From TrEMBL:
GO MF terms, alphabetically ordered: DNA binding
Residues in HTH hxlR-type domain copies: 15-113
Keywords linked to the UniProt accession: DNA-binding, Transcription, Transcription regulation
Disordered: region residues: 111-131
InterPro entries: HTH_HxlR, WH-like_DNA-bd_sf, WH_DNA-bd_sf
Name by which UniProt lists this protein: Transcriptional regulator
Lineage top rank: taxon: Bacteria
Species annotation: Pseudoduganella dura
Length: 131
């Protein structure tokens, strides 16, 4: 029988936090989670709330969040099909983190220089046709 040292048994918090960060790392995941922390959303509603996100990217990010157990997807057998997304009980544990980030932004957000958004596709300007 092998003896394990305390160093081998101890949890490497750096590695554990990297795993935690990876759950929410992704171009849009934090924004999706922030919205779902507020209420249940249908796919189209989420897409409208997140300017610049493509349908493909929203689908991919939601699938990853669902696979990680942070988002629950409910499909209703209707025509056309209705799909709703909500955060899971596990993800609700992130609520205090979201509240802390909101409080931090309320206090310090004005001091952060605004950057032009380079995310997602640009909205197409409405072109007028003559004739």
């Amino acid at each position: 029988m092998e003896k394990k040292t305390n160093a081998e048994v101890q949890v490497n918090m750096h590695e554990e936090m990297r795993r935690a960060f990876s759950l929410l790392s992704g171009k849009w995941k934090l924004e999706i989670m922030w919205l779902l922390n507020q209420r249940l959303y249908r796919f189209g509603e989420l897409r409208k709330e997140i300017p610049g996100i493509t349908q493909h990217m929203l689908t991919a990010q939601l699938r990853e969040l669902e696979a990680d157990g942070l988002v629950l997807r409910t499909v209703f057998a209707e025509v056309p099909p209705r799909v709703e997304y909500e955060i899971t009980q596990k993800a609700r544990g992130l609520g205090p983190t979201m509240e802390a980030l909101t409080a931090w932004w309320s206090e310090y957000g004005q001091s952060v220089p605004e950057k032009p958004s380079m995310r997602g596709r640009k909205a197409k300007a409405a072109s007028s046709k003559l004739g």
